[in-house]
Structure formats: C-alpha cells, structure tokens
C-alpha cells in the first residue's frame, strides 16, 4: 500500500538525523510574515531554520489522499480523506506539510515552539479524533477552505503529546493559519488547552506564547517609519547621522522576541506592492533581514560527533494565496523557484514530490 511505502521512506530518510537529534536538543528560529498587494493578493512568507538539514522537498498532496493520525499509545488516530489538494514543503521525508497552502488559498505553517507548548491530555477513547502535532497542518489544509472554518472545527480534535519515534521526543510546535481574504490566526496548545489567537499583523516567530509577543510590542512605541527630526538641547542641535533613525534601537539579535519585533517593523513599513508577484519579491527582501548564516546562532555544546550545532536558514518560502503559487529558495541556492498548483493535477493518485536541492549558479559576465 501507498501508506506502507511512505512509512518505509520516512524511516530510511530520518535514520541519519536521528543520531544527531538523540544527543542534541534541536532549536529553530523560524520567522513568518504576511504582505497584501494592491491587487488583493495575500502573501504568506516565512523562513525555516534548524541545526541540521531537514531534507525538505516540495510536495503536492492530491484530493482523495487517505490519512490516519498518530496517537501517543500507538493506536490509529483520526482518519480522513483530503477534500482539497495542497502544496508546500515537508521535512525528513514525512508525507505532511510543514508549510503550504491548499487550492482554496488557505495557508498553514508549522513553527517551532520550544519550552512553551503544552499539549492536550489524551485518553484511549480519544483515538478517533486524535492527531500528532506535526499532522495538524495537513489536516487543516486538506479539510478547510478558510480561517473561519478552521476556527469552527479546530476544537473538535485532540492534539496530545506524541513522541516522534525516530527522534525520541515530541516536537513542540505552534501554527500560523491565513487565507486568501487576509484572515490570520495563531494556534497554540498551552498548559493542556487549545488557544486560538487573532493575528492582525500576520507575524509569528517562536516562544514564548503569541499574546506575550503582542504585549511586548508596547516596548517599541517609539518605532517610526520615518526619520526622527533633529533635537534641540539648549544651544546644541543634535542632527541624525543619516537614514534609519526611526528604527534606532530596534533589536537586532536572532531571539524570537527580537525577530518578532523586527518582522512587525519591516512588514508594516514595506511600501505597497502593486501585484502579487511584486509582493512575493518584497517578502523575500524582508526575510533577508532574518537569514541566519551558519555559525551565528550556535549551541555551547558540540554533539556526540564533535560537530558545532548552529541554526541556519535552510529555506525561505512565500505562498501567493490568490495565484496559488509556492515560491522558495534554499541556503545552497538563492535562486527563487516556483511551483504553480493550478498546473498540477489535483486528482492524482499519489503525492507528487519536487526536490528543493540544487547548488548556487554564479553567472560569469566575462566575454
């Protein structure tokens, strides 16, 4: 069966990762933003960081694809069949999307949420409505057409702590959900309870909880999109040294709170984009500010093999929820590539896989 073949693929793909992850607690510094173009296009864009290569591919999940959720005790979880086709990026060979959208323009992105996630309690009688945290994104994309539909049905399921066997721990995650109308929410599990937050600015990073980040923005009420005028101190006039004084004091480190503040500042100060294509390019430019080179965000301890563990930006993606196009670039290849969902058969019999691999091509201008 297809599911069995996929399961074998997962096991073989994650085997190498498991050795590293068994001795090192992973960290991730993902950043997500939203842009809206003047033609009505809504763009959901993000970075994905991790300390090791997650071997992501772009997947197209067809309508009619059969799913079975995962439970903490090994029983079969919720069963469903995909109502909508979806496209996006996975990780470690898994047949679920970490980031992507469906044919109705609903977007869901998984973001790491360390030290903060507190999943729901589980009882064996809950099995038929249970999903593992990493399955939640695909469940939403394959069943719903809008943020409002997600809000209505998200309380119908149980999302408990489920150990990902190949890694030996339960990944802590939360989700940003957007749709083509611009609606945006953040879904978190805190202290065993589901929390759904409105996300009017369309920004997400990592820990702590989303409402904390929104409150923290009040520490930056001096933020301005325009330069500050000169200040007169008695007989002395203090002139700015140059451009950018409106963002003077903006935090520049890679911690989640600092990235959240910067993501709000850059996404809200971006000049209006005329078209969806323009907004996609603007999103990639904004996310350049969050691109982490290898070595800049590292753990103090080396892994069991003596390797330095450092988060880096594995890939950056942008989803045009109106045109239904998925754009991405990777650490090894900054060329933006795109997959158009409207040009893929939504009723295919199996998942279609498109490699994200590729090396940078440096074009010579010499005659």
UniProtKB/TrEMBL annotation:
The entry's keywords: Hydrolase, Signal
EC annotation from Swiss-Prot or TrEMBL: 3.5.1.11
InterPro entries attached to this UniProt entry: CBAH/NAAA_C, Ntn_hydrolases_N, Peptidase_C59
Signal peptide stretch: 1-28
MF (Gene Ontology): penicillin amidase activity
Pfam families from the UniProt entry: CBAH
EC class name: hydrolase
CDD domains in the record: Ntn_PVA (cd00542)
Top-level taxon of the source organism: Bacteria
SUPFAM superfamilies: N-terminal nucleophile aminohydrolases (Ntn hydrolases)
Domain Choloylglycine hydrolase/NAAA C-terminal positions: 30-354
Family statement drawn from the similarity comment of this UniProt entry: Belongs to the peptidase C59 family.
Name of the protein in question: Penicillin amidase
Organism annotation: Methylocella silvestris (strain DSM 15510 / CIP 108128 / LMG 27833 / NCIMB 13906 / BL2)
């Amino acid at each position: 069966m297809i599911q069995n073949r996929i399961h074998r693929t997962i096991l073989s793909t994650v085997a190498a990762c498991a050795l590293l992850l068994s001795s090192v607690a992973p960290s991730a510094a993902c950043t997500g933003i939203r842009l809206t173009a003047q033609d009505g296009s809504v763009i959901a864009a993000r970075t994905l960081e991790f300390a090791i290569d997650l071997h992501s591919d772009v997947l197209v999940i067809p309508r009619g694809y059969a799913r079975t959720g995962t439970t903490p005790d090994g029983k079969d979880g919720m069963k469903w069949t995909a109502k909508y086709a979806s496209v996006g990026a996975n990780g470690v060979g898994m047949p679920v999307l970490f980031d992507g959208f469906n044919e109705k323009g609903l977007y869901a992105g998984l973001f790491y949420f360390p030290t903060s996630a507190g999943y729901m309690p589980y009882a064996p009688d809950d099995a038929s409505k249970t999903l593992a945290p990493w399955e939640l994104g695909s469940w939403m994309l394959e069943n719903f057409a809008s943020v409002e539909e997600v809000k209505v049905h998200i309380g119908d399921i149980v999302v408990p702590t489920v150990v990902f066997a190949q890694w030996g721990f339960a990944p802590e995650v939360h989700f940003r959900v957007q749709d083509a109308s611009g609606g945006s929410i953040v879904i978190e599990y805190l202290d065993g309870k589901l929390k759904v937050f409105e996300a009017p600015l369309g920004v997400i990073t990592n820990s702590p909880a989303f409402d904390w980040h929104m409150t923290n923005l009040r520490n930056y009420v001096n933020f301005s999109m325009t330069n500050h005028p000169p200040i007169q101190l008695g007989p002395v006039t203090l002139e700015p040294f140059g451009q950018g004084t409106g963002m003077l004091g903006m935090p520049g480190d890679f911690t989640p709170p600092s990235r959240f503040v910067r993501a709000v500042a850059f996404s809200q100060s971006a000049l209006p984009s005329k078209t969806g294509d323009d907004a996609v390019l603007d999103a990639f430019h904004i996310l350049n500010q969050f691109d982490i080179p290898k070595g800049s965000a590292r753990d103090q301890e080396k892994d069991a093999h003596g390797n330095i563990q450092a988060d880096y930006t594995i890939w950056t993606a942008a989803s045009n929820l109106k045109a239904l196009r998925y754009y991405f670039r990777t650490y090894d290849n900054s060329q933006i590539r795109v997959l158009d969902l409207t040009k893929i058969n939504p009723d295919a019999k199996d998942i279609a896989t498109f490699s994200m691999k590729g090396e940078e091509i440096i074009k010579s201008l010499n005659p």
